[in-house]
């Protein structure tokens, strides 16, 4: 039996590290300013929710579902204008976080492909 992506990454501590780097980059890099503007001033809740969600999405414990029920990702993101630019900033920020954390190249590619499908599905504005 092969390891889940959650296990291959290193479990909950590794997912937390990825999420924290993602949000640190969003805060620091001007290229992600549009994405950052869609988030609250304080990112603690956003960090926790993405961490909990990714743990389950990657095949680990269903921490998000235990707390909030079904993720309903698209419905929960409808209040925020998400177009191609926001999708691409999210993907670029996550890609940079994975690269900076030296996540295995094959795993990074696999995750990037999955992230693209989900991020593209979240778009709710034309451009």
What does this structure look like?
- The chain is mainly α.
- It has a single domain (5-121), classed as Orthogonal Bundle (Globin-like).
- It is 69% helix and 0% strand.
- The protein has 8 helices and no strands.
- The chain has helices at residues 5-9, 11-28, 33-37, 44-57, 63-68, 73-77, 84-100, 105-121.
- It is globular and about 40 Å long.
- The model has no long low-confidence stretch (mean pLDDT 95).
SSE blueprint:
Elements: H1 5-9, H2 11-28, H3 33-37, H4 44-57, H5 63-68, H6 73-77, H7 84-100, H8 105-121
Helix pairs in contact: 2-4, 2-7, 7-8
On the 0 to 100 scale, the average pLDDT is 95
**β-strand amount:** under 5%
CATH superfamily: Globins
Helices and strands: which structural class? mainly alpha
Helical content stands at 55-70%
Give the number of domains.
Answer: 1
Shape: globular
User: Termini separation (Å)?
Assistant: 42 Å
Which oligomerization state do the chains in this entry correspond to? single chain
The stretches of 5 or more residues where confidence is low (pLDDT under 50) are: none
Structure summary, number of beta strands: 0
CATH class: Mainly Alpha
Radius of gyration, taken over Cα atoms and rounded to an integer in Å:
14 Å
Major sheet description: none
Instruction: Give the helices and strands as they follow along the chain.
Output: HHHHHHHH
CATH topology: Globin-like
């Amino acid at each position: 039996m092969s390891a889940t992506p959650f296990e291959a990454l290193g479990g909950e501590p590794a997912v937390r590290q990825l999420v924290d780097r993602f949000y640190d980059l969003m805060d620091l890099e001007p290229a992600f300013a549009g994405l950052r503007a869609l988030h609250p001033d304080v990112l603690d809740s956003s960090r926790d929710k993405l961490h909990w969600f990714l743990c389950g999405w990657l095949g680990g414990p269903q921490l998000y579902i235990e707390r909030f029920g079904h993720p309903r990702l698209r419905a929960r993101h409808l209040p925020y204008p998400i177009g191609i630019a926001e999708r691409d900033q999210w993907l670029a920020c996550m890609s940079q976080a994975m690269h900076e954390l030296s996540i295995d190249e094959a795993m990074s590619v696999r995750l990037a492909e999955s992230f693209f499908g989900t991020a593209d599905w979240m778009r709710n504005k034309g451009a």
